[in-house]
Write a structure and sequence with these properties.
There is one protein chain. With 340 residues, this protein is of the alpha/beta class. The protein folds into two domains: 220 residues, DHBP synthase, CATH 3.90.870.10; 90 residues, Threonylcarbamoyl-AMP synthase, C-terminal domain (Rossmann fold, 3-Layer(aba) Sandwich), CATH 3.40.50. The chain contains ten helices and 15 strands. The strands form two sheets. It has an eleven-stranded mixed beta sheet, sandwiched between helices. Helix 2 packs across helix 5 and helix 9 packs parallel to helix 10. The chain starts with a helix and ends with a helix. The N terminus is likely disordered.
Length: 340
């Protein structure tokens, strides 16, 4: 192959679009024609395609390198759009009224209109109504549900900015809608309502199990076991290893500044900025200066990406304190990122 042709093939082709009305119209037309568009959400950036178009959905799996046994989340503009896709229940109505639009995905019995490819052959479908204003405008302009897993190569750290998408998929897609940095920074909570009398959290996120229990008026369990690599799960993000940097990551309960000083070629990611730092120690980083869970969640994936690119021989990360709310979500992502 000619050298110029090789360079052209390697060079990024994706164009980053601002959220003007003209651009949204253009991107909506691309989606309706079966093309893919990377989109901003309040959780992470997603790779969107027409959820009712099997060809577009196959392109999502191929572009990400995602196995087809890992289902896609279908995004809708409003709760009323669920009617065509899934069976509603009284529990769903309570949840949708309380948390939609927002960072909550609900798993419901699906209707035939949803392609089996989207649900990995499952009889249920994962649905979310996102809160990001640009994505909501795009959904409304399309007038169709959009499947949108995270816009990154499968298994790698999720993207929280348009540039993250361009870094990972820029040579595989044509369109990226820039909606700024994701406000939350970790993927949505997933609630299983296939059996409304036995609700379960399948993936922790910004909406806690306690909040769900208050709305539903009943106990909500949490799925602790992870999905096997070769079997279909009812929702995405349930594999034991996910959100992973290429550099080896070790997760520990607590880190010490003195330990970091002894290993200058390795990076140490604290949850909160240490109170005493030596000027000579340059391998210490943190998720939140004052230990705020929201700030830590927002910074998590971006910080892991920066450290992964910096050439450290190994990464060490400190667990978030506690196991409730965002602490549970942060520790879930770190645990999967460190899995081997």
């Amino acid at each position: 192959m000619h050298a110029a042709a090789r360079r052209s093939r390697r060079s990024p082709r994706a164009k980053i679009f601002k959220g003007s009305a003209r651009n949204l119209t253009r991107l909506a037309r691309a989606l309706m024609a079966g093309e893919l568009v990377a989109v901003p959400t309040e959780t992470v950036y997603g790779l969107a395609g027409d959820a009712l178009n099997p060809r577009a959905c196959r392109a999502i799996f191929k572009t990400k390198g995602r196995p087809t046994n890992d289902p896609l989340i279908v995004h809708v503009h409003s709760a009323k759009d669920v009617d065509a896709l899934a069976e509603r229940s009284e529990a769903f109505e309570k949840i949708a009224q309380a948390f939609w639009p927002g960072p909550l995905t609900v798993v419901l019995p699906k209707k035939k209109i949803v392609p089996d490819l989207v649900t990995s052959g499952q009889s249920s479908v994962a649905i979310r109504c996102p809160a990001h204003p640009l994505f909501r405008k795009l959904l409304k302009a399309c007038g169709r549900p959009l499947a949108a897993p995270s816009a990154n190569p499968f298994g790698y750290i999720s993207p929280t900015t348009a540039q993250h998408v361009a870094d990972g998929l820029g040579n595989r897609i044509d369109y990226i809608l820039d909606g700024g940095a994701a406000a939350i920074g970790v993927e949505s909570t997933i609630l299983d309502l296939r059996n409304p009398r036995m609700p379960r959290v399948l993936r922790p996120g910004a909406i806690s199990r306690a909040e769900l229990e208050r709305v539903l008026g009943r106990r909500v369990s949490e799925r602790r076991q992870v999905a096997k690599a070769k079997t279909s799960a009812p929702a995405p993000g349930m594999l034991s290893r996910h959100y992973s940097p290429r550099t080896k990551l070790t997760l520990v309960t607590s880190l010490r500044v003195s330990e970091a000083a002894l290993q200058p070629k390795e990076a140490f990611l604290f949850f909160q900025k240490p109170t005493r730092l030596s000027r000579g120690v340059k391998n210490i980083f943190w998720l939140s200066e004052k230990g705020k869970f929201g700030e830590a969640a927002k910074n998590l994936f971006a910080q892991l990406r920066r450290l992964d690119r910096a050439g450290w021989s190994q990464l060490h990360a400190e667990r978030a304190p506690g196991e409730a709310g965002l602490a549970r979500a942060i520790n879930d992502r770190l645990t999967r990122a460190a899995a081997r």
